[in-house]
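User: I'm putting together notes for a lab meeting next week and I want to include a structural view of one of the chains we've been expressing. I don't have a solved structure, so I'd like a prediction I can at least talk through. The sequence is below, exactly as it appears in our construct file.
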Amino acid sequence: MPGTSHLFPFHLLHPDEDGDSGAMELAASKDDPLLRYVIKGKGTYPEIACNEFMYHKVAATLGLYTQGVKLIAGNQNYRRAAAIRYVPGAQKFRLDGSSEENCRAYFEFEALYVILNEEDSHEYYLDGQGRMFKLDNAASFNVEQATIMRFDGNPVGQLFVSDVSAPLHAVGYEWYGIKYKDFMERYGQAAVEAYLALIQRFAALDETALYEVYDSLNKQYPMALGRYYDEFVRIRKETCRRFLGEIKGV
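Assistant: Thanks for the context. Below is the predicted structure for the 250-residue chain, given as structure tokens.
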């Protein structure tokens, strides 16, 4: 990524504290001072950067609108930190009264929330052009701090994640149907059509489109982590196909 300067503490929602993602900073590009990035993952939370990185790349591959993200390279102090394009003046998104495009995007993002086993808050914002995007995606893919420690060869990671196949297969399948029924009852047919459309796109996801993403990840993390994400995506594709097959009979 372009060199950055003018680093200072920053948190969009918690100006006076770190928040759930740990300490964050705002960086301006040396090449373009108007181009700024939120730096996440610096310090003791190595899972934040890789999960944010993978989330944005998967979401973009599925056609969802996201801010650009890169893993920081060449700076040991920011090893395993992610730089996410900062959106100045972002406004809180509200579903009521939103455009048809943003409403559809909301339910598509909510489908991805289920597929990627997200556990963080549902934080949606509008950029300066009124397009909706999602914040805080670090709690996803069932990848935690102990997961990274295990792949790093740290015995503590082995203690807490003795079998990596367990989080891979913990798909939370019941939530696919729970969300479907909830959206149908509360928002109607258009909502579930958007929800199912994203699940269909994920089921047909071209996994080769993520190979370059894994190559970038491998420069910062053990190759075993890239293989984990690859297998995670494959298993969720199968899960999406299973749900779509069952929903046709509803």
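A couple of points you could mention at the meeting. The CA atoms of residues 210 and 232 lie 12 Å apart. The radius of gyration is 18 Å.

User: Perfect, that's what I needed.
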